[in-house]
Amino acid sequence: MFSAIARVFKTPDLRRKIWFTIAIIAIYRIGAFIPAPGVDYSAVQQCLALGTTEGGLYSFVNMFSGGALLQVSIFALGIMPYITAAIIVQLLRVVIPRFENLQREGPQGQSKLTQYTRYLTIALALLNATTLVSMVRTGALLGCDIPIITEDVLPVVLLMILSLVTGVALIMWLGEQITERGVGNGMSILIFVSIAAGFPGAMGEIWTTQGWRTFGTVMLIGLVTIAAVVFVEQSQRRVPVQYAKRQVGRRTVGGTSTYIPIKVNMAGVIPVIFASSVLMLPSVLAQFNQPGPGEEPSAFIQFIQTYFVGGTHPLYMAAFFLMTIFFTYFYVTITFNPNEVAENMRKFGGFIPGIRAGKPTESYLAYVISRITFPGALYLGLIALIPLIAFVLIGANQNFPFGGTSILIMVGVGLTTVKQINAQMEQRNYEGLLR
């Protein structure tokens, strides 16, 4: 293992890319602790010390920002506007033919979709920044009565909004620089770093509050969870494809055998994010419809506070599990089109042994997808419930380090990045990083 790592750093080009990636990561983490203009950093730390945000509504978003959201830093919005914009653009391919045509045009069309994603990211960042600053002014973000804005006047508020939007644009640029000149996908690397930044604090809190036995149990659960996630993420159903021989000019092409790799978890972490976002809406509605002084909360607010706030009620867990399964099927249906795959195979003379080309191939692929998606959806639902169950059993917060979106993203990004490094090593040496 250490010899393989040494070979990586002995390769000049690869070494330069890795150090460039590390430098970008350092800039990103430094920005997470620079307070936005007009924010009283000491007041923010006092509110955080009170623990009023522990396991709260915004802990999920705070995890994706590497703790920058609750620090009210210039990178407070983190990578979430870009993730949301990318998901929206991908979903719009289903309803807007123009987007679908751009996807089929290859690199040129993809660059156009990337440009649309950037514009939408800035628009969402402006909306999120305005909402965040409003919540900071009212104290709803940190749940603290201590004022954290030095001067609550219009120029300062506008400057805060501008700095937050600029922070999102800078993060997007840093991610693109990693993709072009570093190692791995830049946006995925920044998400990985944001989540990993919370691990030491979460594990230290478990050690301090729960003791070494609980800490050891959590570590054991973590290792088992990581092994299970790696196993499932690497699992795939290989549908064999045979290409017939064809005469192109004077050459004979085709006659080869290959396969279509269909992963057990084709949807990745997107269904968990969708389910979390939808179940977050009732809590948002409840927070913005609080009764006045001396008034009793309505029956709807009481229902939301009982069953959906906190995420520990069995009804919430059941809804989270079922919605994760639903969004898994929904996202797979959007991203994998059996008709398109069958048509491409027919054009190039490919067929699945024992299955006729055309409509039978499309039906067969749809059948395989529906069968393989079911265990993948169950797997995502169970992984997503791990932090909620941990909250009930050991009193951990909802950002339990080994479970849910955090472990899925970290393992997925880690596997992809290692594979890319291995591929670059094999281009330069007979031996890669992996054996």
Any overview of this molecule?
Belongs to the SecY/SEC61-alpha family. It is a multi-pass membrane protein. It holds the Pfam family SecY. The chain is mainly alpha-helical. It folds into 2 domains: 197 residues, Orthogonal Bundle (Preprotein translocase SecY subunit); 204 residues, Orthogonal Bundle (Preprotein translocase SecY subunit), CATH 1.10.3370. Helices cover 69% and strands 5% of the residues. It has 18 helices and 5 strands. A 3-stranded antiparallel sheet has the order 4-1-5. A hairpin with a 2-residue loop joins strand 2 and strand 3. Helix 6 crosses helix 8 and helix 9 crosses helix 10.
- CATH-defined superfamily of the largest domain: SecY subunit domain
Structural class determined from secondary elements: mainly alpha
Low-confidence stretches: none
Q: Give the mean pLDDT.
A: 81
User: How is the main sheet built?
Assistant: 3 strands, antiparallel
- Quaternary structure state of the chains depicted: single chain
Number of separate structural domains: 2
**How are the strands ordered across the major sheet?**
4-1-5
The CATH class of the largest domain turns out to be Mainly Alpha
Per CATH, what is the topology of the largest domain? Preprotein translocase SecY subunit
Distance between the termini: 10 Å
